[in-house]
Write a structure and sequence with these properties.
CATH topology: Pyruvate Kinase, Chain: A, domain 1
Order of helices and strands: HHEHEHEHEEHH
Structural class: alpha/beta
CATH architecture: 3-Layer(aba) Sandwich
Number of helices: 7
CATH class: Alpha Beta
Strand content: 5-15%
Strand order of the largest sheet: 3-2-1-4-5
CATH superfamily: ATP synthase, F1 complex, gamma subunit
Length: about 300
């Protein structure tokens, strides 16, 4: 049977764990706000770059303007950039990303290679015997564009070299503190057709005929500069979304852990009180029994 001393030591241990999880919850809440601020700071540049790109790509000779805009007639190889976290204690965040990725590309009809962003995701990919092309772990938090741009450059190089005909991004889209949705986005070839999410991400698009622009230098040179940068920017925004989602998931997980630890501490405290009360009652009964025996002994003597 557990002694009151052992229960008291366990209560102290559980309360120490609750203090740690409460601190992690506060840190994660602060990091979520920083990641979202960094994400919003990229929007003005992304909006202008996309507007220029959209206008150039609307030209009749779009298919010949740049190879990163050209759809391949046949798809032979696919690369998936999977963004996960470097650390655990985030509930099922990393496992959900891997499960979603394998649901989409685990039984894909074409050979798939992976670029792993985040230590947890890379380890899970290797554990499931997937071909890992590159490992980008331990990115700063929040990451800067210079930290993430090598991922975009690698994707562009693999596409231009013909080693991949389609490249996809898989990451957790941050909706709110309680909801992070695994998302897949086609990275290359770059799609400039406006979808339902475009206005929400990059601003409204004015319908009707657009103004005629004169580009200096010529559009091809502009695309040579804009498209690789915009590709890297999409990866950067996905990394920021994933980091915000990871911190939100960790904050919720740590909040739940703190509540569970407090409940366990209360339960153990109640058990300790009951054991202590039982011990005191037993000692009082022993004392009363001894006093009664002594009284009887004196009366007989």
């Amino acid at each position: 049977m557990t002694t009151p001393r052992e229960v008291k030591l366990r209560i102290r241990s559980v309360k120490n764990i609750a203090q740690v999880t409460r601190a992690l919850q506060a840190v994660s809440a602060s990091k979520v706000r920083r990641a979202m601020q960094a994400l919003m700071q990229t929007r003005p540049y992304a909006t202008k770059a996309w507007q220029v790109l959209k206008h150039i790509a609307d030209q009749p000779d779009r298919g010949t303007l740049h190879p990163l805009l050209t759809e391949r007639t046949e798809v032979h190889n696919v690369i998936v950039v999977m963004i996960s976290g470097d650390r655990g204690l985030a509930g099922a965040y990393n496992t959900n990303i891997l499960r979603y990725t394998l649901q989409k590309f685990g039984e894909y009809e074409k050979p798939v290679r992976y670029i792993g962003v985040g230590r947890k995701g890379c380890n899970l990919l290797l554990r499931t015997r997937k071909e890992l092309l590159a490992d980008f772990s331990r990115l700063p938090d929040p990451a800067t564009f210079m930290d993430v741009s090598p991922i975009g450059h690698l994707a562009v190089e693999e596409f231009l070299a013909g080693n991949a005909d389609e490249i996809y991004l898989v990451y957790a889209d941050f909706v709110n503190m309680l909801k992070q949705i695994p998302t897949v986005k086609k990275l290359l070839p770059l799609e400039v057709d406006i979808d339902a999410n475009w206005a929400e991400e990059y601003g409204n698009v004015r319908e009707g005929p657009s103004a005629a622009y004169i580009y200096e230098p010529d559009p091809v040179k502009i695309l040579d500069e804009i498209i690789p940068r915009f590709t890297a920017l999409q990866v950067y925004e996905a990394v920021l979304e994933a980091q915000a989602s990871e911190h939100a998931a960790r904050m919720v997980a740590m909040q739940s852990a703190t509540e569970n630890a407090n409940e366990l501490a209360d339960f153990l405290q109640l058990a300790y009180n009951k054991a202590r009360q039982q011990m005191i009652t037993s000692e009082m009964l022993d004392i009363a029994g001894g006093a009664e025996a002594l009284t009887q002994a004196l009366a007989q003597g």
